[in-house]
Each structure stands twice: as C-alpha cells, then as structure tokens.
C-alpha cells in the first residue's frame, strides 16, 4: 500500500514536471515570437527607385549589386532595358516601366513619348509595346512628363488603359499640379507618389543629404518614396548611405507601400482601421481569425524589432490579404484614399504656389 502511494506520488510529480516544462516551453515560444514582432512594429519603410535604366550598363550593374529592395524603372526603348529586366527579375528585384511622357520644356524626347493630344488608341498601343519590352514589370512611373501628367484628360486616358493591366502607377511628381491621382479616381489603378528626388544636384554629399531627408520623412510618415538615377555620384552615395542605414528603416519595394502607409495618408489608415473595426463587429463568430491576428498585432505594438517575427507579421498580412472581405475593405479604403488624394492635390498645388513644398517645386523633369 505504502509502495503504491509512493509510486503514485512519483508519477504525479513526474507529470507535473512534464506539464511545467511544456507550459514554460510554450511561454518562451510565445515570448520569442511576440518580442521581435513588437521590436519591428515601428520600422519606417523606405522605397528607393532608380529611374532611366537601360542605357548605362556599367553603372546599372552596380545598382544590381545593391540590396534587392532597391527597385529599377526601365525605359522601354533603351538598348539594354530587356537585359536589365531579366537580371533584376532573377534577383527578385521589383521592376517598373519608366514610361516617357511629354515635358513642358523643349528637350530631346525618347521614342514613343506620350503626349496629351494623343488619342486613346495611340496611347494604348504605346503602353502595350512598353509592357512587351519590359518583362516582369509590376508598376509604371513617368519619365519627364510635366506636360502629360498635368493634363487631366491625358492622364485619364492613361489610367483607363492601365486599369486593364495589373500595374500600379508611381507618380514621379515632375510638376506640382500633377493630375495623376485625380485621373485614377474610379479606376482600379493603385497610385503611389514620389516624395524625394535623390540627385537633382549631382554630388555625393547632396545625394546623401537627400537620402537623409527621405529617412526623416519615412520616420515621420511611416513610409517614403525616393527616386534617383544611375549617376556615379548617386551610386557612390547610395553605397555609402545604405551601408549605414539605421536599424529602424526598412528598405522596401514600392508595391509594399500599396494599401499600407502611402505618403501622407494617415487619415486613410485611420479609415482602413475604422472599416476593419466595423467589419469585425459584423463578422459572425468563428468565421474568421482576424480578431486574433489583431490582438497579436496589438500585443506586439505595445512591446519592441527582430527578424523572426517580421516573417510572422508578413504572414499575418498575407492572411489578411487573402480574405475576400479584407479585399473589399481595401477597395473601399482605396476609393476614399483617391478622393483624399484629389483633395490633397488641391491643397499641395496651393502649397506649391506658396513655396511650402520645395521638393516638388525644385524637382527635375527627370
Ligand atoms: Zn526619367
């Protein structure tokens, strides 16, 4: 009897030990997951795009040696455009079609430069040709374009054609009163907007200075988009600047900023969050795991960056994006954001007149 009692007590103690070990293990696992998630929760996103690719192979190969989050925008009729697209694609680098658009000033133009007076068929043929010449492109931005992008009628034709393709449009903002956002309203085309030109002044020091401005803006807004060119000074400045990029700055491809923190879109983020909250209250219990994901994200945000959980975070975002309900929410938020864009455009045009936005008023017609 005594022997049995001792045996029972031993088994019970062993069971407690195993349970204790498992509970402790789960706790450590959760901590290991949540802590790094929270550490990266406040990383600011910076997208860098190198324009005018396809002419200067020697310089451009140096761009391809930079982190694959640096994206390239290829001129469709350039001699090495296709070759560069293939190389960049193998690296997993994002590619944009750098579509030539008419400037206000007289300059030598690329072949197939879009002009506001062109009819829709002519524009459609040029865009189709560009898509064939720049394989793997997921987005498009304007080369030059102060005349074309300031024409609402011209850009409406571009947007209506682009909506047939799964390409986003990055407005290079080569003129203050760009009509890109307004023209995209009501279409499926997603819009991004350039914040900083890295190399209007072609010196290493000034490009580094502009890179720092982009970093500061990303911290302030949550994200920023900078555009540079394959100039030797830009390459040297980037090599130097990227080697010492602060830990709280995450280099991303522009497409990572779609539906997330677009420049100056805090109000849209709030709208998206409000939509999510409304959706959650309408969701029947057990039909989605979104409240759980939101809880984990919330817990993460109260703590502090790490590597493992950035992956988890991306998985959560993928889960969100895979939900059809969430897609509807994004669409609703996009429509709202396009309206906001149009309104902000008006405001920015006013600001530009007063010189408040130097980046826009001084940017080159690249
Ligand atoms: Zn350009």
From TrEMBL:
Residue spans of biased composition, Polar residues class: 259-290
Residues that span the membrane, as ranges: 12-37
Disordered as annotated region, ranges: 259-292, 320-366
Cross-referenced InterPro entries: Divergent_DAC, Glyco_hydro/deAcase_b/a-brl
Transmembrane helix as UniProt keyword: yes
Gene3D superfamilies in UniProt: Glycoside hydrolase/deacetylase
Matching Pfam families: Polysacc_deac_2
Compositionally skewed regions (Basic and acidic residues) per UniProt: 320-330, 337-348
Protein name in UniProt: Divergent polysaccharide deacetylase
């Amino acid at each position: 009897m005594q022997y049995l009692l001792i045996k029972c007590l031993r088994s019970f103690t062993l069971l407690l030990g195993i349970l204790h070990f498992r509970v402790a293990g789960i706790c450590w696992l959760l901590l290991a997951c949540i802590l790094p998630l929270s550490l990266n929760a406040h990383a600011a996103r910076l997208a860098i795009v190198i324009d005018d690719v396809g002419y200067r192979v020697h310089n451009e190969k140096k761009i391809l040696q930079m982190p694959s989050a640096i994206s390239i925008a290829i001129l469709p009729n350039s001699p090495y455009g296709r070759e560069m697209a293939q190389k960049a694609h193998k690296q997993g680098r994002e590619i944009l079609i750098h579509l030539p658009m008419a400037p206000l000033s007289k300059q030598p133009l690329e072949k197939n430069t879009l002009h506001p007076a062109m009819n829709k068929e002519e524009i459609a043929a040029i865009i189709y040709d560009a898509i064939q010449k720049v394989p793997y492109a997921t987005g498009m931005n304007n080369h030059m374009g102060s005349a074309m992008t300031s024409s609402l009628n011209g850009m409406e034709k571009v947007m209506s054609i682009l909506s047939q393709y799964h390409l986003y449009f990055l407005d290079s903002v080569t003129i203050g009163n760009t009509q890109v956002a307004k023209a995209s309203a009501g279409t499926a085309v997603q819009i991004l907007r350039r914040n900083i030109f890295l190399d209007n002044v072609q010196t290493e020091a000034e490009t580094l200075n502009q890179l720092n401005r982009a970093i500061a803006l990303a911290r302030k807004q949550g994200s920023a988009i900078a555009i540079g060119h394959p100039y030797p000074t830009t390459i040297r400045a980037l090599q130097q600047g990227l080697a010492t990029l602060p830990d709280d700055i995450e280099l991303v491809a522009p497409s990572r900023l779609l539906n997330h923190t677009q420049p100056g879109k805090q109000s849209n983020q709030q709208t998206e969050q409000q939509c999510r909250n409304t959706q959650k209250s309408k969701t029947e219990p057990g039909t989605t795991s979104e409240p759980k994901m939101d809880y984990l994200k919330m817990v993460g945000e109260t703590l502090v960056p790490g590597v493992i959980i950035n992956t988890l975070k991306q998985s959560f975002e993928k889960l969100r994006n895979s939900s059809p309900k969430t897609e509807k929410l994004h669409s609703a938020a996009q429509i709202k954001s396009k309206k906001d864009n149009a309104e902000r455009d008006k405001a920015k045009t006013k600001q530009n007149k007063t010189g408040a936005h130097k980046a826009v008023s001084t940017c080159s017609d690249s």
